Structures
1.
Amino acid sequence: MDKIKFATVWLAGCSGCHMSFLDLDEWLIELAQFVEVVYSPVGCDLKHYPDNVDVCLVEGGIANEDNLELILQVRRQTKILISFGDCAVTANVPAMRNMLGGAEPVLKRAYLELGDTSPQLPYAPGIVPELLDRVLPVHEVVPVDIYMPGCPPPADRIRATIEPLLHGEMPAMVGRDMIKFG
Amino acid sequence: MDLTELLDVGEAHRAAQKATRVHCCTSTGCRAASAMEVFKNLKTAVQDAGLEAEVEVVGVGCMGFCGRGPLVQIDPQQALYEEVKPEEATSIIDTLQGGTTPALKGDLQHPFFARQVKIVRQHSGKVDPESIEDYISVGGYRSLYKAIYEMSPGEVVDEIIASGIRGRGGGGYPTGLKWATVAKMPGDQKYVICNGDEGDPGAFMDRSVLESDPHLVLEGMAIAGYAIGANHGFIYVRAEYPLAIQRLQKAIQQAKKYGLLGSQIFDSPFDFKVDIRIGAGAFVCGEETALIQSIQGGRGNPIPRPPYPAQSGLWQCPTLINNVETLANISTIIREGGAWYASIGTDKSKGTKIFALTGKIRNNGLIEVPMGITLREIVEEMGGGVPDGEVKAVQTGGPSGGCIPASLLDTPVDYDSLVAIGSMMGSGGMVVMDQDTNMVEVAQFYMEFCRGETCGKCVPCRTGTVQLYALLTKLLKRQATQADLAKLESLCHMVQETSLCGLGISAPNPILSTLRYFNEEYQELLQPPAYLNGKVGHGQVTVSQ
Amino acid sequence: MSVKTLKINGVDIAIEEGATVLQAARQAGVPIPTLCHLDGVHDVGACRLCLVEVSGTRKLLPACVTEVAEGMEVQTNTPKLQEYRRMTVELLFSEGNHVCSVCVANGNCELQDVAIQVGMDHSRFTYRFPDRAVDISHPQFGIDHNRCILCTRCVRVCDEIEGAHVWDVAQRGAACYIVSGLNQPWGEVDACTSCGKCVDACPTGAIFRKGSTTGEKERDRAKLDFLVTAREKHEWTR
């Protein structure tokens, strides 16, 4: 049997969802028998998102140009895209900057108003990705197949979401154990 | 006052009238085109010509052809002048002595006038709205007398039932049934409310009625009070209608002085007083339960029905609430009889309806037409069609109504036919649109209106209108996908079916009707999803506002 | 007092005349989600979550304000109702700034519970991210308007049970917000008795006790129930 091509990506989030993924502990070993990790900040060292990925967990919202470029690529090259955690599903804490109304006021607030010593706006074209005006949940940018809320989603929820996929079934995202936010 | 005295007042007033009456419109529309200056100059011209003995200049209400104001009509000569300039006043008076005038001559035989059937507007533009004697001289308050002395309250209700009249505020609920319900409700204290909180964009029928013939409405209210057993009425008028309020105040004072309102009307045991309540700028207060909250001094929020106002309305008392135009029909129905009224109109929609004909049309103004007339007759014959273009759609019912495509212009104008094609009668706004009109923008305009006017009480209306507006904006910015369009439609149905009051229930109508008849305009705006076209960067993926 | 019999989801129920469909459903153990309803204060029918289908009318009726009638047949969970309820909850989430992970009410929030109940795993509507205020001028309590869903429970509980009427609604439409006193900071409103009923009534983390942090909000809903029972049935001890 061919192994499932499995990826995880980390966009605008705290990486807590990935930490929770690592909380799967020994089940990760079981998972490894079913999947080939083709791209992941915690699972392999490949730098390019490959073609024909079967399942991808996307942590984080879309906050900058890099996030945007990557998510469009992920969507094009992935069969089942999972919004992984509240930042991916709702934009969550990163989106609390959206209330300020755009990238410019956010940068001014962070780097000028709150800058203790030598306040200045960061400027490094081509190195530091430009902020988007608003942080967006993943499904505002590309279609999403499965939504897994939680901040972070507990390991049990992650397992209950992934496990059916290994057997070619869709998980049932219902009930407090599966879809409670926060 | 008794009948003889009433007739004497009318007789004396008629006798004092001059042979020639120069009627000058002094309503809001013509005032905006300096009618008051025309009025003043006409008076001076009559004095200067030494014609005071046989000619009088009368400030009257609306004559209807608002797009050509200020209007001046001389009777009995039946001479109509349009777009009269203040400096033309002298020459118009000169025509009475064989002179000529450069003033634009109007044609009273034009279908715009000729096709009208005037019941509500029968005195409009003929009587001085600030003179109760003028109103009495054309038969005013006779119906009230007839009701009190020649009919029992039950007979009055029966007459209204027989007339078949339905509510002119938009919903089209049978007025007689409403009256009968309130009349049958137990309780010593009942109220009559006249809903003059007209707020649809492009609608000004009620304003015109209140400005042109306030006594007709007051008489209708008093008859309603007699029929249902109420001794107190309220007229709720929006603050944006100062002239209507001023004329109503004057009319109430005059009627009280003659004993036609207040205690022991016509020396009978029937008491009926009328108070004015002024709105504070909220469109939703036209919704009856919100209006009642507002009169009570509360926040103008609708409350769930039942209980209906007829059961528990103002201060929990049975309350009859009718629109201005409905109440303005009552006096004539009592005078001529319900059967006569029922002979006008269609099977299920009786009588006449006033429309404010506006938009891309030659003849703008107010028309009163029999129910059952087709949209084509109104728009093409009476309205004269679109200048330099073609009719694309007709919007009826304001933000609660829909856009009717030109292909359905032969639809008869009645409550049920309009609902069947996805619009509604509404209060009477009728906006004509030409081929240059973008229908998605039209839907967006009305949704912006609803979004700003929702009271915010129920969730679907408060936030649904915001999301609908955002989706339309996204479409118009050419950033929406097929999925967004599907979302737009499903949200329309949700807001329609789950909102608490009529505002939310009908708010999606402009979108749904344009989706139905002008779907291609929506389709043209759609974009393929960003992830498919392979381009990345600002402007590809968007954040809707 | 007479009794009415009706069917809810096909099950026969008998209940006293004047009861609401919501009361009948609760008696029968049929769950109907609610947010603006609060036992003990009058119902406003505003959140529209409790809409049900009643045979004989095309209109969806709010169970909280619809009285039972003889022979009534009620459906509480048709596909259409499920879909509309989920949309309603999504609209609420997209309207305010509901960040569960940093909210005092996380894990103890009726909005969160309702989201689970209606199966909302994400919002299809674009988040609005409104710019809303937080008022912590009161010595004991705070109100975070970002988390407010305008259910007006606080308005009613303060007016009808405490009798202070500190709260009301200002503005209209999307601009609506809960206002204390005459649009004063809460701490400056003399009418406030600091009784805390609004904290207990608030379904979300909008009104909270100062000092409680993420997931720490507790409610004493029993206190409200006790007060209502005390007044209505003159049972003064609990």
2.
Amino acid sequence: MDPDILSTFKILIIGESSVGKTSLLLRFINDSFDSNVSATIGVDFKTKKVTVDGNTVKLAIWDTAGVERFRTLTPSYYRNAQGAIVVYDVCRRETFNKMQTWLDELDTYTTKRNIVKMIVGNKIDQDSRQVTREEGIKFAKRHAALYIESSAKTRDGVECAFEELVQKIIQTPGLWEASVNQTGTISITQGNDAGYLPKSCTGWSCSLN
Amino acid sequence: MASVNDSKHSGDDPTTECNRLFIKSGKGLQLRALLSDAGLYSYAAICALSLHELYNYEWDQAFNQSCINNLLQHLQLPKQVKGVMISLIEGQGNQSTDAYVELLLGETNLKGKSLLVVEDMVLLAVKGGNYDARMRVLIRHMASLLRVPLELLELYEESVVEFLTEEHKEPSEEEQQELNKRNRGRKIKRYALIGLATLGGGAVLGLTGGLAAPLIGAGMGTILGGAGAAGAAAALGSTAGIAIIGSLFGVAGAGLTGFKMKKRVGEIEEFAFGPLTLKPQSSIVSNNNNRAFITQQLHISIVISGWLSDDADDNFIRPWRSLLCSREQYYLRYESQYLLELGKAMEYILSFAVSMAAQEALKYTILSGLLNAIMWPASLITLASVIDNPWGVCCRRSAEVGKQLAEVLMAREQGQRPVTLIGFSLGARVIYYCLREMASRPGKCEGIVQDAVLIGAPVTGSSKEWSRFGRVVSGRIVNGYCRGDWLLKFLYRTFSMASGVAGLQPINLKDRRMFNYDLSDLVSGHSEYPEKMREILELIGIRTRSLDSMATGDMAMKKSNSDLPVRSKVSLLTLRRCKSDNAVHQCGLDEEKWKETLAAASLETLAISSPTMSTSPSELMTP
């Protein structure tokens, strides 16, 4: 493993169909935008290295299909995810109304109780907004989730969404120490978890090699 | 930095050609049309996850890549799916196949007939003209995931062969050209390898000579039911498809029995293959309707005996009479002179040491901890010279024979299809050295051997040595041992092998392939392996012939029907039936129903069958 990489985070992107999940991902990975992205088949998988607050982490991003017929497959991707980006379309209220269902599903299938959730209201570049920013914030607060509004088309908030998510994951120690454990390269004694600071992580990653 | 795995395109294989034909014919892609994109995706994902589970070594990755590439191309899934599939093969996201299986089985158009998916896999595997052992293991794994009984899978494989070999037709001009082209290159090779004496090999391909062989698949009508089979007609009955058959069934279809040892490895005096499935004395030649007496199958088995107890005609095959691992089975005849000598020596020493077995059994059950060093009775030691010499000779020779066998297999004399090797005692030693030789040739040895079964093997038990076989064997490596095998212990008394003898102990190897079977309860010593072979095979999970079919003497008659008198009839009948109402394709056949079908089928068989009949499905269907 690359010595600079702190850990690998598994990030999920979920939400109703055609709210712009794949577009968000493509904007983040390739900095590109295509208004005619076809519906995702099953799941899309991309990786990217990002540096947040001096910590470099590798993101393994699983972009799931929102289409109904793939719905039964999505839960299988939830396992061991440290972060989830739940997307809705600010111009389509029905996608916002479904958010509760998505969060419920996330809670049901996730294997990590303190998974970091990020709610993203996408497509803010469009005029016909149906869901206000306040509504979104209120909803996110209620579910203890991060909130951001974005536009994959104009690049607004995309980078920010991923960075904030990563930041939050790094700050939640219980989450990603486990991932170090799971690689099987090192076993960590349980007692260390409490009072563990993100800064000291570099020391750990050295022992990984 | 985005690092999305993208792998090289393999565009030059015959598969692309076939794909073109698939599309041209317009009916080859029925399964694809049947499934939704979610279903196709699940299909591919199950395959990818299975690959991850089965082939996780570094050297497997090239195969995994090409396999998934072929499948994605075949299913015409968009490019982005490849990235995911590769991540699944690499084991990222530690997924289980359950969700995919559920989704696939729940596909509305598929109606739970997961057999169609497996059939599709078989066709995909075969159409390149190379049925890779890894592919077969993969398909069997997927079949079990999709809850398709392996019997049905085997029946389908049979049907594909029937379909390939059933009809002959005048070659069209296009085909003739293709044929000429193929022959030019091939003739030289064929003569060099086997000469013309291929008649012993049987099979349509062998009987018609190499020339006609590639034509057999040409212009075939649709015999089989089911969507996948229609695809077979389209894909395999075409010019490109013609190439497949010759390739699958070995050089010009002559196969193993036509093999003549041209180049000797070491000092081997005898090395030949014979068909296992029938009595040598039964009259075969009268069969003039081009029906093979050994039917060509997509999978073959080779069995190897450890010693001979007499010089009767069937001395090599007697222990294996109950074996029904595949419908096409061969035995290896090697160094019979020496093996006979060994057999006599064994008999001699046994007659003097009857009580040894009992003593030994007692030791290992009660006092195993105390008796590490065994005190051999003086009387036995005095007899040692009787057996030590033939044993030493046979050990040396069987190792040589193993290397020769490796050469034969790697030259693909058996065709591009998976082989299962089964042997006991020195036969297991032959297999051991065969695998060892193959393992030393990376790049050439993979995908040939499906399973290797070594029973009472007089070879090292070092897991390091055995671990090399993971590259050669795709399916199972079986070590059957007997803790109380005093004869083997006695023969190895002077060797101080730290790692022990494989025939006496389990191999401590962590690999999904490695299976250890303790046969101590079945056999009390080395000499009992041949007579207890049926029980041993059953324990190991290799199919055996039922007792009554063994009892009813004339095997040749059965041969012309099939090895599996009842079942194969069912195969044909049910495969036919599925065309109309798809009865068998329903997964999870309930037991009762299946039995009823069997019974009904066997009745029908009795009614129709005549000793010499060649059972073509169409004949069976006419009431």
